[in-house]
Amino acid sequence: MAEIRIRNTNERISGEQNVKAFLDKQEVLYEHWDAAKLPEAIQEKFILSDEEKAQILSTFNQEITDLAERRGYKTWDIIALSDATPNLDELLKKFEQVHTHTEDEVRAITAGKGIFIIKGTDDVGYFDVELEAGDVISVPERKPHFFTLMDNRQIVAVRLFIETEGWIAHPFEDPSFQKA
Ligand SMILES: [Fe+2]
To answer: What pTM was computed for the model?
Structure first.
């Protein structure tokens, strides 16, 4: 289950209902898939063949098409990151810049962990959403955010897009952002 950490106060929010209520208020979509549906052999696998990626997509076909129909996504794929990813450190450095997109950024975590750092309403400021397998999140269009890995540095996620170009990152310079 996802957990929230509010950066200004270090307050943590846990429990599905509390997390969902908080994210609803911040206009961030949060849903849950049953990650245990995945064949055990690929539940903890972070280097994936094309066949294994296709297997993940077919396992969650119903969840994906349901989400796509409700929210207008037209294409989807799998992203897998781990220490085996070439240039992972460089990649993460690039990821860890606050930015926006012209469409929402939706990720369904199927293995591993990750964090979205999101700029909330003025009273909240930046908050972290720590995600694990089964968590589905969508950061609204034009909402400043970035994504990074957690200490275990491995994740597999389904990405869904309305248009591929909608996902281009536009840097968001924010003097109020504090890294920790
Ligand atoms: Fe993004």
So the answer is: 0.94
